[in-house]
Amino acid sequence: MEISAQMVKELRESTGAGMMDCKKALVETDGDMDKAVDLLREKGLGKAAKKADRLASEGLVSVEVGADHKIATISEINSETDFVAKNQNFINLVKNTTLHIQSKGISSIDELNSSIIDGVKFDEHLKSQIATIGENLVVRRFETIKAGANGVVNGYLHSNGRVGVIIAAACDSERTAEGAKDLIKNLCMHAAAMKPQVISYKELDPDFIEKEFLALKGEFEKENEEFVRLGKPLHKIPQFGSRAHISDEILAKEIEALKDELRKQNKPEKIWDKILPGQIDRFIADNTQIDQRLTLLGQFYVMDDKKTVEQVIDEEAKKLGGKIEIVKYVRFEVGEGLEKKSEDFAAEVAAQIG
């Protein structure tokens, strides 16, 4: 297959790899763009694929948490310009729409459009707001989560109004749920900053984990080449990429290897229980770097970066004398996932409305 300059340009823009590396990757994969991206990443030459022409959409995210912390709603409404996103009428529209969605138990855009707000159908209400504000507006998405018995929800909206998070936890008692409110709020703040994609490694597809692990090793090997040149300490290439790779058998084998090492160092057995937990934690941390990048529970907590979020939750549960399990996580960032080939966002919004 003939590799065009446009194909090379597109691959370069989506991965950040060099022009010649992109051309070679396309030749090796017979012009298959997705396979070329994977090949570059395995060689440590490309980043995770960016979508060409990411849409720099404007608008606001809104988060509303019920006073009893049993329900929370998050929404995103898009505007054409950042100027309108700062308009008080638009700010009020976003907040009131989110409260309306929550109070009426609305679960779809169609249901929202046919619902009644201020005596009129919502789609008519939105059209009147568009006429008043002077820009096309669209309710892009929303989600409501509820806490079941002994559950708690909380949320966080970043000060710029562009990033919001809601999280729900299931607990063993209402007492534990009440005590966990602040922790859940802090976890929302963590997720706003660290952008985990899912709660746990258990939600990641095994094939996806394998692909990411190959890319991770390629990234480290490529960086090590540069570190050798600069005389810097090298990355330790991990044996595994995710907790999904580390079975109980593998962990037991590693613990025995660590014990053997302590014997060789003539460390008294009576102090092993003080040394081993830290060494096991280090082994897991070194070999779960995909989880640290992509999962809420696997990330190191921004407020105490020596502990993972999972460890922080376990510690808080022990303090409260109960159990806390994160069961739902939703993060919205204005414009994420929207793509376009042109800069005409007005047309994009109009198409969604039409």
Automatic annotation (TrEMBL):
<dbReference type="InterPro" id="IPR014039">
    <property type="entry name" value="Transl_elong_EFTs/EF1B_dimer"/>
</dbReference>
<protein>
    <recommendedName>
        <fullName>Elongation factor Ts</fullName>
    </recommendedName>
</protein>
<dbReference type="GO" id="GO:0005737">
    <property type="term" value="C:cytoplasm"/>
</dbReference>
<feature type="domain" description="Translation elongation factor EFTs/EF1B dimerisation">
    <location>
        <begin position="72"/>
        <end position="336"/>
    </location>
</feature>
<keyword id="KW-0648">Protein biosynthesis</keyword>
<keyword id="KW-0963">Cytoplasm</keyword>
<dbReference type="GO" id="GO:0003746">
    <property type="term" value="F:translation elongation factor activity"/>
</dbReference>
<dbReference type="InterPro" id="IPR018101">
    <property type="entry name" value="Transl_elong_Ts_CS"/>
</dbReference>
<dbReference type="InterPro" id="IPR001816">
    <property type="entry name" value="Transl_elong_EFTs/EF1B"/>
</dbReference>
<feature type="region of interest" description="Involved in Mg(2+) ion dislocation from EF-Tu">
    <location>
        <begin position="81"/>
        <end position="84"/>
    </location>
</feature>
<comment type="function">
    <text>Associates with the EF-Tu.GDP complex and induces the exchange of GDP to GTP. It remains bound to the aminoacyl-tRNA.EF-Tu.GTP complex up to the GTP hydrolysis stage on the ribosome.</text>
</comment>
<dbReference type="Pfam" id="PF00889">
    <property type="entry name" value="EF_TS"/>
</dbReference>
<comment type="similarity">
    <text>Belongs to the EF-Ts family.</text>
</comment>
<dbReference type="InterPro" id="IPR036402">
    <property type="entry name" value="EF-Ts_dimer_sf"/>
</dbReference>
<dbReference type="InterPro" id="IPR009060">
    <property type="entry name" value="UBA-like_sf"/>
</dbReference>
<keyword id="KW-0251">Elongation factor</keyword>
